[in-house]
Amino acid sequence: MPPRVDAQRNLDAILAAAKEEFAARGVDVNVRAIAARAGVGTATLYRNFPLRSDLIAAVFRREIDACAAAAPQLAAAHEPDEALDRWLRRYTEFVATKHGLAAALHSGDPAFSALPAYFHEHLGPALRTLLRDAEAAGAVRGDVDPLDLLGAVANLCIPPPGSDDHSRAGRMVALLIDGLRYGAKGQVGSCRTPAVRTAGPDRTGRRLRRGPDSPGVPDRPS
Question: Mind listing the pLDDT tens digit for each residue in 117-132?
């Protein structure tokens, strides 16, 4: 039986509040702050999520679902290369704001045991489809493994020691996205920068070639 409307509303509010508190203060934030942001009592929060790990896992699954669902929406609204770019940036935001999630996921808590498979089963196919469409459009190279790319983006989202600069992650991922275009068959649609282009001659008359202008990610299931 599906939950009552008010119970579902409380559940949605708790998950949304937990997402915001985790992003702002990390997964060890006081649950009272989550309950207050959600507009519910702590008893209601504990009734839905008796353990902190239950709440972390639920937020993580909800975020995975939202990120996966964004892939076909972006593909329908944009050219393949733009859809891939936008999705990778959305995924970057998802990963970069999960303070302390990596340590929690690797803590051995059984509440997290199913998350690696859930992560890869949902986000792997979503990214694979976007990569396939972008490759067919000649926008990116064709030798990119989607799970490797998910891991690479996650690694770039790890801030330097003592830093909390998440804008760095966006800059580094932008460079990675440019790298996907290197060696592509050709670029069409919204991508206006070829992977390798020919510049004007230098002073010797020769032609110059120039290029284009796991924090919270579970390990691959074995």
Answer: 999 999 999 999 999 9
